[in-house]
Design goal:
single chain, 429 residues, globular, binds s-citryldethia Coenzyme A
Length: 429
């Protein structure tokens, strides 16, 4: 942190000196904490230019399309690591040694089952409930089962809660899917990898246990890595805010799942497939590009644009490569939705409207096509995102609680009525 200063000149008041803080990489920040002494606040709806915290977990360089997890580029993690190793890195700050990795994998495997009574919890939902609605409910309900690890001030409790959440999310996600299908829920197996286990619980039944395709398991693992964490996005900020009140980790993650559900955020992967279905044919692309540009039309090109990336989202690049691998493995040579998506990308990226606003495909643009090819229904796409992002959420939650913090409580610019007296009901006009 450097000792540079900013000076704020307020008409009719003494200048205010504000420290400028410098990180390892990335933009400096102006520390405005002392501004309250002037009786004023900063005003920044949507946090367009506000840093909410200091963090060492993930760094995004939006102008250059760079994403680092604890300093490691996402491309290297996707190519040379695996999801559980990435989880260890995000949670602990360093890649594990072979011994540490074996221990971590074994610990996670031994926490993949959920309390048997949680099964009955599902019966309260309609079978056709949106899977994200069920996920919000069952993950929040975990705090009703694990009373032995809810003391957020106890590092051991924080550790076991993190492990339980990473381990149980695939089991819960698969249970949500099986419940919607009216099929028996499958127990996790300790002889499978994390991604293989998820696909096993999703697509096998007690009647038939099919071997899991290594290519599909590898693609699933890569999708988990690409969604693992992403700085202070809306859902991670929600988890931090919920955690700052002292809420238990399961309630905080349920809050993150709720925030992720929105189509402007994690719900975009489901919305991309819905949009591609609505466009239907390449001949309709121009009409929808025009709708996306029309300020009077709420339609946006789903899977395009990002608050931070003003260059290609590096995850979209890896996702597209994975998409090609999976479709090739499955012998899907001319997937109509992939062809439509690629043509849409081509046209959008030559259109001045998108170029001027640096609107590129983001992580959600191609992920849905892969998930659909693997056999995952569209309504489960954001559940997959939540499954993968849980490690990012809980890493930020742990980081926040590991050093002094205050409850998050933004202020406001009030433009409502000044104080006024109530008139009697009979006198109101
Ligand atoms: C994720 O934050 C994260 O890191 C999120 C995430 C993660 O890993 O956690 O990366 C995951 O949420 C990815 C984003 C998924 N969402 C979508 O694909 C939905 C479509 N995208 C848009 O809703 C939008 O791009 C956002 C929400 C992603 C970003 O919105 P911003 O930063 O608030 O930008 P903006 O809405 O102010 O857009 C700037 C301009 C506007 O036009 P002008 O007012 O300048 O004329 O670009 C336009 C917008 O209208 N614009 C779009 C557009 N996205 C932005 N126009 C058409 N189609 C789009 N997709």
């Amino acid at each position: 942190m450097a000792d540079k200063k900013a000076q704020l000149i307020i008409e009719g008041a003494a200048p205010v000196e504000l420290p400028i803080l410098t990180g390892t990489v990335g933009p400096d920040v102006i520390d405005v904490r002392s501004l309250t002494a002037t009786g004023r606040f900063t005003f920044d709806p949507g946090f367009m230019s506000t840093a909410s915290c200091e963090s060492k977990i993930t760094y995004i360089d939006g102008d250059n399309g760079i994403l680092l997890h604890r300093g490691y580029p996402i491309e290297q993690l996707a190519e040379k690591s695996d999801y559980l190793e990435t989880c260890y890195l995000l949670l602990n700050g360093e890649l594990p040694t072979a011994e540490q990795k074996a221990q971590f994998v074994s610990t996670v495997k031994n926490h993949t089952m959920v309390h048997e009574q949680l099964k009955t919890f599902f019966n309260g939902f309609r079978r056709d409930a949106h899977p994200m609605a069920v996920m919000c409910g069952v993950v929040g309900a975990l705090s009703a089962f694990y009373h032995d690890s809810l003391d957020i001030n106890n590092p051991q409790h924080r550790e076991i809660s993190a492990i339980r959440l990473v381990a149980k999310m695939p089991t819960l996600a698969a249970m949500v899917y099986k419940y919607s299908m009216g099929q028996p829920m499958m127990y996790p197996r300790n002889d499978l990898t994390y991604a293989e286990n998820f696909l096993h619980m999703m697509f096998n039944t007690p009647c038939e246990i099919k071997p899991i395709s290594p290519v599909l398991a590898n693609a699933m693992d890569k999708i988990f890595i690409l969604h693992a964490d992403h700085e202070q996005n809306a859902s991670t900020s929600t988890v931090r805010l919920a955690g700052s009140s002292g809420a238990n980790p399961f309630a905080c993650i349920a809050a993150g799942i709720a925030a992720l559900w929105g189509p402007a955020h994690g719900g975009a992967n489901e919305a991309v497939l819905t949009m591609l279905d609505e466009i239907g044919d390449v001949s309709n692309i121009d009409k929808y590009i025009a709708k996306a540009k029309d300020k009077n039309d709420p339609f946006k090109l789903m899977g395009f644009g990002h608050r931070v990336y003003k260059n290609r989202d590096p995850r979209a690049t890896v996702m597209k490569q994975t998409c090609d691998e999976v479709l090739k493995e499955l012998g899907i040579t001319n997937d109509p939705q992939l062809k439509l998506a690629m043509r849409l990308e081509e046209i959008a990226l030559t259109d001045p409207y998108f170029i001027e606003r640096s609107l590129y495909p983001n992580v959600d643009f191609y992920s849905g096509i892969i998930l659909k090819a693997i056999g995952i229904p569209t309504s489960m796409f954001t559940v997959i995102f939540a499954l993968a992002r849980t490690v990012g959420w809980i890493s930020h939650w742990k980081e926040m609680l590991s050093s002094p913090y205050k409850i998050g409580r933004p202020r406001q610019l009030y433009t409502g009525y000044e104080s006024r007296d109530i008139t009697k009901l009979e006198d109101r006009k």
